[in-house]
Amino acid sequence: MPVMEPGLDADLLRTWATEIDDGPFSSLCWGERIAFDNPDALTLLGALSAWTRRVRLVTTVVVPQLHDPVMLAKALATGDMLCGGRLTVGLGIGGRHEDYHAVGADTATQNIRGMADRVDIMRRVWAGEKITESVLPVGPGPVQAGGPELHVGTTGPKTIRSAAAWASGVAGVTLDLDLAKQNELFDVARAAWADAAKPAPHLATSFWFALGNRDGTGDDPREQVHRHLRHYMNWIPADFVDAIAPTTGWAGTEKELAATLRRFADLGTDEVQLIPTSSDPEQLRRAAQVAAEFG
């Protein structure tokens, strides 16, 4: 979903959601920021549950330290109920102090332990445990037994190893599409899950993408990625964003995108999540054609 693009409205978001649901995609993903002009992630979950019927709904990612964990558990269980058990919750520590400051969250919790502590509370809520003196436990109960599937959103080996205790997969991101580096992280996850005597983890990664026009007209796809990064990475000095833009994300043709996806598949990647750099639904439709042919 193009949630980090400017100028969104309900009609545009509904168009993206319904076309993703109708297309060949396995999931529909969206992220969270606070001090930004994106839609609230949990409110959007309700709308996406109503607008879709098939695809898995995946938060990539929600930062639990920005929320009261009991209220977050209740909201996510409600979302799981509304979408009929199609929710996967990607959780991350978050990379911006400003989001913590915006909600009065303690930046001292911006670490692995702070995330794990809140996961523990949420899982207790989803298990129907009374965590305070109350007549009834906090509900509703999620459709998925024990709560929605949890993935850890990180590029750090230490966080991946720690999350093996509670996550069933990895919601990764690659800035420069370095396959060797991605495979190293996947190997860390495979080993950590094996050490924890758990089934093999779901291995997902994501990257920004832009498809150029077939006839060479219109916006240059690399410039589209650059423009998006300038907007999204507004907490980073612009000259640094400009320096990394030529090698961050992916830009090219449909044929080149298919080849890139094939290389990730060869690593054993279970899922690649494409991050839009434009809210134009035509980018989605062209990506859908690639996904259909790739599958």
TrEMBL record:
GO process annotations (BP): alkanesulfonate catabolic process
Alphabetized UniProt keyword annotations: Flavoprotein, FMN, Monooxygenase, Oxidoreductase
The keyword Flavoprotein belongs to this UniProt entry's keyword annotation: yes
Its EC number(s): 1.-.-.-
InterPro entries reported in the protein's UniProt record: Luciferase-like_dom, Luciferase-like_sf, SsuD_RutA_monooxygenase
Residue ranges of every copy of the Luciferase-like domain listed in the record: 15-233
Pfam family, one: Bac_luciferase
GO molecular function, one term: alkanesulfonate monooxygenase activity
Domain of life from the UniProt record: Bacteria
Identification of the protein by name: Coenzyme F420-dependent oxidoreductase
UniProt source species: Gordonia insulae
